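Researcher: We're teaching a course module on how sequence relates to structure. For the next exercise, students receive a sequence and then see the predicted structure as tokens, so they can try to spot secondary structure elements on their own. Here is the exercise chain.
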Amino acid sequence: MPAISIDTFFACSLMVLLVLSAMATTSKLLYPQINNAIDEALSERYREISKYLLLNEGSPSNWGQNGQIIPENFGLAKADSENPYELDIDKVSRLNSENIYAISYAKIFTALKLSDVSFRMEIKPVFDVIINLTATFVKANDATYQFEISTKKSGIPIQTKLKCYVIAENYLEASPFHTSNGENNVNITIPNDVNGPAILVALAKAVCDSRIMSYGVYAFAHNSINPKPKSTFLKLSPLNYTLTTSFVYPEMNLSKAYALNINYYSLLEQISNGNQSLTYNLPNFVDPSPTIIVVTGCNSTNFFAEWTVYPHIPLKIGANFAGLDALSNVFTYNYIVSINSAIYECTIWLGGPKQ
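Model: And here is the predicted structure for the students to work with:
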């Protein structure tokens, strides 16, 4: 068997085993601070709590869709779903602190109604998409940028199908699909009459299972100064298939807004205009893919491009257990969850006071 086929076989086997083990509700428990015998009753209780967070809808069951609602009971499951571990896209998005509709850990703790248990949660893509700019070639009429795009899980290359988009001022270019064995060189050419900064969006799906998705975003200079950090000009908050763009500075002019997924892209329709914000409709793409949202505009004379993703992942929320001697029992559970048919990795830490 050729070496590349062997690599692909092991990479796909890793992904399939990861999904099957988690779908069977198997959890991995770690005991970093326990030196005595494991309290089986406590471990079983924490395991059930971790499952409750993901299998329970909370109340009201639609608390995710309305950014003003604080749940009376906390749970992330999609209402009326027949699939276990299918999470609601908006409940999950409200866990991300970058979202203006985010719910705080304190309010989640109250809604969970477990005064003796602290938790931490992380939700992220199953594998990583890593983008590096490796070379730039400037010619009379255009500039070509060479990128190295890696798709890996825990350092192991993952074979994927890769789709790239480039956005700059009044410019959008979609590339054909690339098949990547974990390392891929992609050349992007932009005309010199287009102003930057520019954004490269790379969406990737695993060859062994198209529901296993990830993405990477890379901002770079093109006929412009270096791009500013994310959220310098706008705070982008997707919720209930609506995008709220909140201005960081007054007197900003927005030009275009795009929604991009693995197969399609769409120009967003503005639905309201406020003093310091605009709102847009978001399409409900049928593909099991995160939707990358890019909004372009000008602040004074400077063009900018801001981006976010829906669902608003990766995210981390909850207590910081590191170095807390007051917590003697800390358990970690790993699950695979689905959001809009795409598969993500969820880790939950649970801890309680010394007995």
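Model: If you want an answer key for the exercise: The longest helix spans residues 3-23. Residues 3-124+314-353 form one domain.
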